[in-house]
Amino acid sequence: MKLNYLKCYDVVRRFIMYKHGVSTKADLEMLIFIYDEGIFAYKNIKDFMKVMPWDKKRFARLIEQKFIDVVRESDGERFSKTPRLYMLSKLGRKVVKDLYATLEGKLPNDTSYYMLKKNVEYNERMARGYIKHIRDKTKELRQHQTPE
Known about the structure:
The chain contains 7 helices and 3 strands.
């Protein structure tokens, strides 16, 4: 028996977005895309941005919200030979790592601050319950796995 990650992706995505304050689904998808890019120039991700919902300010917003760091400034010229370079910030990496960990059922115990928070919307309370279900299910699967 295997865990179907895509089956619970939508609930986990909403949970992670709420937990870390990620504005939109497309913002989270952008962070997932650049997670393994290392240091990159804007032109490296331009093609990926074409398939996302159009938002001219998305990249600037992710920088402003500290999900992406500027590694090197450009020399100010429009067609510069030294373009501005970026990388996913520590916060951005934490968001994506938490997403993967949650999908794998490796969640913090119920004593974590977020799980105890009481003033959350109805949808978030329901997502929280399902996240606990995912954790319990993956724990059960790990216990019954046979060593290969």
